[in-house]
């Protein structure tokens, strides 16, 4: 795992210089590129989210010619800068979501976001079998900064996601499901809670029609199916609780479905095989009682209600909040 990661990071470092040249700016990282309701987005934060370096590495692996155009021509550099502006516009929308959460008192605190990021990284390191010191070394070797820099890059997306989760919980916390709604859903969707018909069968499969007919004559004369199967060296001939349409060819099921329990069917020819079937029993569909599926129905109805409430809330309340917000984009691209 470590060798693979080192190889990947070496590749990243090879293209890092090109990425820097393609997106270079004389402005410091603290330069403000957008102001959203008085809250600033800096160039450093934009560069972190745009992650041009990683993007260029991926492009170079897919199409080296396209990579060269992007990094070595004026048109390519302008395209990358327009991409960064599009990322900035997305960040503005995301920051509006965070501020919207703040309006309702559910914006995550800096401590909450930091703890969540730390846990994500700790879980990842554990799954990869490496420690923080080793990972920190990898990052620096690839000119990607320190582990703390890496955490900062995760901070914003985590802030947005936690804000959305908090808003959803806040808006949908009063959603409830009544007993009447549960019963109505059960009655209207009873097929959903029914198990399919199943069959208990004896089935012998032959490649010779002559052998199949001979086996049928013996079974029909009173020799039990198991003995005939053993005579033909067929060990797997008994099937229990087979769902209609499973295991056997569709053509064979056409005969099985129409047969009565105890019937001897065949030989039926399908794809150069000959099937001899004895239908032992046909088990009708079983409908699960309401109490058995009540929790599932409740969860489904509750989820539907919460989604409906959330959609209406975003369409109406967030739309108004966004419309009344003051946004200034200071990152200009020709």
- List segments where confidence is low: pLDDT < 50 over at least 5 consecutive residues: 1-24
Total E-strand runs: 9
What name does CATH use for the topology of the largest domain?
A: Triger factor/SurA peptide-binding fold
Helix- and strand-based class?
A: alpha+beta
The succession of helices and strands, N to C, reads: HEEHHHHHHHHEEHHEHEEEHE
Integer average pLDDT = 86
Radius of gyration: 33 Å
CATH class of the largest domain equals Mainly Alpha
Distance between the termini: 44 Å
Output the CATH homologous superfamily of the largest domain: Porin chaperone SurA, peptide-binding domain
Number of domains: 2
Largest sheet: 4 strands, antiparallel
Indicate the CATH architecture of the largest domain.
Orthogonal Bundle
- The amount of helix comes to 55-70%
Count of alpha/pi helices: 13
Strand content: 5-15%
- 3D shape: elongated
Strand order of the largest sheet: 5-4-7-6
How are the secondary structure elements laid out?
Elements lengths: L1 H21 L9 E5 L2 E4 H8 L1 H11 L1 H9 L1 H30 L6 H19 L3 H10 L5 H26 L6 H10 L5 E2 L2 E9 L2 H12 L4 H7 L6 E6 L6 H9 L5 E7 L2 E11 L2 E2 L2 H34 L3 E3 L5
Antiparallel strand pairs: 1-2, 1-9, 3-8, 4-5, 4-7, 6-7
Polypeptide structure, described:
The structure is a single chain. By secondary structure, the protein is an alpha+beta fold. It folds into 2 domains: 182 residues, Porin chaperone SurA, peptide-binding domain (Triger factor/SurA peptide-binding fold, Orthogonal Bundle), CATH 1.10.4030.10; 88 residues, Chitinase A, domain 3, CATH 3.10.50.40. It is 62% helix and 15% strand. It is built from 13 helices and 9 strands. The strands form 3 sheets. It has a 4-stranded antiparallel beta sheet with strand order 5-4-7-6, with helices on both faces. Helix 4 packs across helix 5. The longest helix is centred in the C-terminal third of the chain and has 34 residues. It is elongated. The relative contact order is 0.12. The N terminus is likely disordered.
